[in-house]
Amino acid sequence: MSQAPSTASSTTGAAPSLAKPEMKKTREGFGHGLVELGEKDPNVVVLVGDLSGSTNVSFFAEKFPDRFVQVGIAEQNMVCVAAGLAAVGKIPFLATYGAFASCRAADQIRVTVAYTDLPVKIGGAHGGISVGPDGATHQAMEEIAIIRSIPNMRMIVPCDYWETKKATIAIAGDPHPYYLRFGRESVPVVTTPDTPFVIGKANVMREGSDLAIIACGVMVYEALVAAEELAARGVRARVVNVHTLKPLDEEAIAKAARECGAIVTAEEHQIHGGLGGAVAEVVVRRHPVPMEFVAVHDRFGRSGKPEELMAAFGIKAPDVVRAADRVLARKAGRS
Amino acid sequence: MEQLRERALHVRRDIVTLLAHSQSGHSGGPLSTADFGTVLFFHEMNLSPERLDAADRDLWQFSIGHVTPVIYSLMAERGYYPLADLLHFRKFEGHLQGHPSKHDTPGIEVSSGSLGQGLSVACGMALGSRMDRSPRRVYCVMGDGEQQEGQIWEAAMFAAHYKLDNLCAVIDYNRKQIDGDVEDVMGIAPLADKWRAFRWNVIEADGHDVPSLLQAFARAREEKGRPSVVLAHTVMGKGVSYMEDDYRWHGVPPTKEQADQALREMGTTLEAWTERLRRNGVAAVAPSANGAS
User: Fold this and answer.
1) For residue A220, how many other CB atoms are within 10 A of its CB?
2) Is B97 touching A (CB cutoff 8 A)?
3) Which of A14, A89, A93, B98 is the most exposed place for a label (fewest CB within 10 A)?
4) A28 is catalytic
């Protein structure tokens, strides 16, 4: 289901600007979403592993101290404590860095949370290489591959502050386990408070049919910038925001393949098993077309500034444009 | 007390019989757990098998998920589902999975099977119960080999930090694990000292003596301000002469012939007890005191 592309127009308010975007932190969207949930639902509880400030659960902790559980540096315990809280009727949100949430506690997520299908909501903060100076150990880039392979897990990678806030609130209403991936830095706002958000329904951010750029997270902005540049040359790229990695909007992907004939995927994640892999699984079955992947090519990150890292690791708008050119050449070569 | 002993005997017969039919599963741990398990299910815990969502029912979590032969036998005897279901343990057509599955078996609160996780789950249940001011208690059964898992100690720290006195853990301290004696594989002693150092109330009990167990659980219930752990000293394979204290029976079921021999030691036969299960024979023993419904 498409909606008004937020760069061309929006339903209310000023259209987000690509050239000079408003910059806001997705983790603040998480934090503010939790506060709103806390006000509405007394069953929402929040856990954290010694990272209240950097995951922004501190906002909730200040307002609802009786529903805030500090577990210290013990992520495996935290996931299972959350499960126990869910078993007695709570809606637990927990937060730690994505590297620890997805790897260290993977067994706990798999057996205690997912196999039991408990409504535990995992906030995987600091996802992606844009984590910056902390370096490889803290730059989580495998979460999509790990989490989507676990049955019953749902997964959302929101594109900006507003989408993160909406996603946080929306997942509380679905009694199943969720993983929410967001980042550290301020990132461009590309949606508005009124942009529709429906779990499992991809948003077409820009119409076009020469190719489709399917992106998630901060790469939605990069995709939109790339689409502008391509438009200047007369190439009309569709930009699809696949915020929900699982359950995947297969119809939107198949439609993009059918109507555009070429796909570029873009993610702040390893090339193996992430958004690209998920999209490819659908495309190959439903409507095979040439595909190019903009992702981190099977490398650990390193320390640096977020912007320079994204450029060095090949996941900025120019990389999306180059991938678009490659896929268009392949599309042309076929006909 | 005599009722509890008789019930425990039935549970042991159930364990051996279901294993004889499945030819897959664990023998040693279920048998060492049978006595304190019976005291928990038939005296200590306030359970409501007929109403699975009863608000203030006590909650139990077997962190040692693999001792399903005793978990399922206790549940069947207590009335969660028909005894006949035990004959389909680990079979494709049955609901009784190799390790406890919430979505398959009514009465299981949280699935388990990967060691080290259940105490954390119990902590969450206990904390949530206190948030709701529920009078329920939460019980967690652990293994001694399982004490080697680091997450157990994360949970132990958590429970003491949050003063979860509505939480009672029990350790099946049978001193054996898959690869041999616990102290040879990866020493956990001194175990009581460790739990005390983690600020828990530690109660040692003879895991096969009903009065000792009754007293232990009563003392746990009285403790305020900190969680309690009962170190139940047990014998792996208790009740079957050729299994007792032999670590090789940890994860191996008896053959049909061996099972029949064990059941004869317990005063019945494989054929007779199988028939009793098939007919859903309900033992004349009702759950006793302590809030059990």
Assistant:
1) 31
2) no
3) A14
4) no
Chain B: closest CA distance from residue A320 (Å): 43
**Which residue in A250, A262, A278 sits closest to A323, CA to CA?**
A262
Residue B160, token pair as written in the block? 């003491």
Tell me, yes or no, if B291 comes closer than 8 A to chain A by beta carbon.
Answer: no
Q: How far apart are the first and last CA of chain A?
A: 29
By the 10 Å C-beta count (0-12 exposed, 13-18 middle, 19+ buried), A173 is classed as exposed
Q: How deeply is B80 buried, as exposed, middle or buried, from its count of CB atoms within 10 A (0-12, 13-18, 19+)?
A: buried
- The DSSP 8-state label assigned to residue A244 in this structure reads E
Q: Is B59 on the interface with A (CB under 8 A)?
A: yes
Q: What distances in angstroms separate CA A102 from CA A99, A124, A318, one per listed residue?
A: 6, 8, 30
Shortest alpha-carbon distance between residue A97 and chain B (Å): 18
Stated as kind and residue range, the H or E segment containing A187 is: strand A186-188
Helix (H) or strand (E) segment spanning residue B192: helix B191-197
Asked if A81 and B120 come within 8 Å (Cβ–Cβ), the reply is yes
pTM of the model: 0.94
What Cα–Cα distance (Å) separates residue B93 from each residue in B69, B103, B104? 17, 15, 11
Amino acid at B66: H
Separation in Å, CA of B105 to nearest CA in chain A: 11
pLDDT tens for residues B45-56? 999 999 999 988
Per-residue tokens: A272: 């193996």
CA distance A261 to A309: 31
Which residues from A are below 8 Å from B131, CB to CB?
45, 66-67, 90
Furthest-apart CA atoms within chain A: distance in Å: 64
Output the six-digit token pair for B51: 């109403």
Task: Give me A243's structure tokens.
Answer: 């915020």
At A69, phi and psi to the nearest 5? -120, 110
Instruction: Give the helix, strand, coil percentages of chain A, each rounded to 5.
Output: 45, 20, 40
- Residue A6 pLDDT greater than 70, yes or no: no
The reply to whether A328 touches chain B by the CB within 8 Å rule is no
Task: Count interface pairs A-B at CB distance under 8 A.
Answer: 109
pLDDT tens for A216-248 read 999 999 999 999 999 999 999 999 999 999 999
Residue B157: exposure state from Cβ atoms within 10 A (0-12, 13-18, ≥19): middle
**Could you report the predicted ipTM of this complex, rounded to two decimals?**
0.94
